[in-house]
């Protein structure tokens, strides 16, 4: 369940119990909204049924007697969660945003740009790479094919920045500029994120499973 930046999550083997838990929480939230005079935009609220299989008859969720439609995916804090958590839609979104920003920066990082290589690399690591890695502790365990798509984006830019010839291997280019592979970088961020969870003073957060690379 998503309403702006608010998420309500529930899980159970029996969908009826899951729905009941969500509806009960909605009622409590509704009372809180009334108390603090906060208007909830029901039209922007979505529900996603996360499951491996296909559920033909999904349970009903209501807010203010209005049925919330079930969506194929929802965007929460910049992360697109599809109903089977394949992350394909999110990866596609990353690719689009990355290419759009790259076009704007092209005059600076193009092969014929007069800017020094170290500054081009700085632009990449501070502006472009964060577009790819945002939220990676969440989606980093996606299929290898999805990671490969992102690595292609990065490799193309790195080769452009370094004015690499066709005969130069991506691995050798990375060693030259001391840039870890995208896969290793995502792994490092994810490990650090989950290792820090135990230091967060929140019981629910501390119950999150440990990250296994």
UniProtKB/TrEMBL annotation:
It comes from the Eukaryota. GO terms for molecular function: RNA-directed DNA polymerase activity. Pfam families: RVT_1. Keywords: Nucleotidyltransferase, RNA-directed DNA polymerase, Transferase. Residues 1-81 form the Reverse transcriptase domain. PROSITE patterns: RT_POL. InterPro entries: RT_dom. Transmembrane segments: none annotated. This is RNA-directed DNA polymerase from mobile element jockey. It comes from Araneus ventricosus (Orbweaver spider). The gene is pol_4231.
């Amino acid at each position: 369940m998503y309403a702006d930046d608010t998420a309500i999550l529930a899980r159970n083997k029996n969908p009826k119990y899951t729905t009941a838990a969500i509806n009960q929480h909605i009622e409590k939230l509704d009372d809180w909204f009334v108390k603090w005079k906060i208007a909830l935009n029901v039209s922007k609220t979505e529900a996603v049924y996360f499951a491996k299989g296909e559920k033909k008859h999904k349970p009903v969720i209501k807010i203010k007697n209005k049925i919330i439609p079930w969506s194929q995916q929802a965007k929460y804090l910049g992360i697109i969660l599809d109903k089977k958590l394949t992350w394909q839609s999110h990866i596609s979104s990353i690719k689009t945003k990355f290419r759009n920003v790259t076009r704007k920066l092209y005059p600076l990082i193009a092969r014929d740009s007069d800017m020094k290589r170290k500054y081009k690399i700085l632009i990449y690591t501070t502006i472009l790479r964060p577009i790819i890695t945002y939220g990676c502790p969440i989606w980093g365990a996606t299929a290898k094919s999805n990671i490969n798509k992102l690595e292609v984006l990065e490799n193309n830019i790195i080769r452009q920045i370094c004015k690499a010839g066709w005969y130069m291997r991506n691995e050798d280019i990375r060693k030259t500029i001391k840039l870890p592979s995208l896969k290793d970088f995502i792994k490092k961020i994810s490990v650090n994120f989950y290792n820090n969870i135990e230091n967060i003073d929140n019981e629910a957060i501390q119950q999150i499973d440990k990250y296994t690379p």
